[in-house]
Amino acid sequence: MAAVQGEVRFDKIAEKWHALARRRLASICELQRNGRWKRYYTEEQLESSLQDAERATMLWAKLAVQRVTFSKA
Q1: pTM for the full model?
Q2: Residues ≥6 apart with Cβ < 8 Å to 65
Q3: Domains in the chain: how many in total?
Q4: CB within 10 Å: which end of the chain, N or C, has fewer?
């Protein structure tokens, strides 16, 4: 866990989740681009997954830029 002098840096944790969300979005976009999505999704499921991945990426991007620290108990 990211810790600085006894404090937890939630922005660093959020950066890691943002990177994961970006990889998930890139993976879904690649499935869409090459047509392999048809093996795993219906058209509605693909659209829903794509929207969820885009929302998660935007959310984690916002959280990653907020600098919030809490002292460990």
Answers
A1: 0.77
A2: 11
A3: 1
A4: C
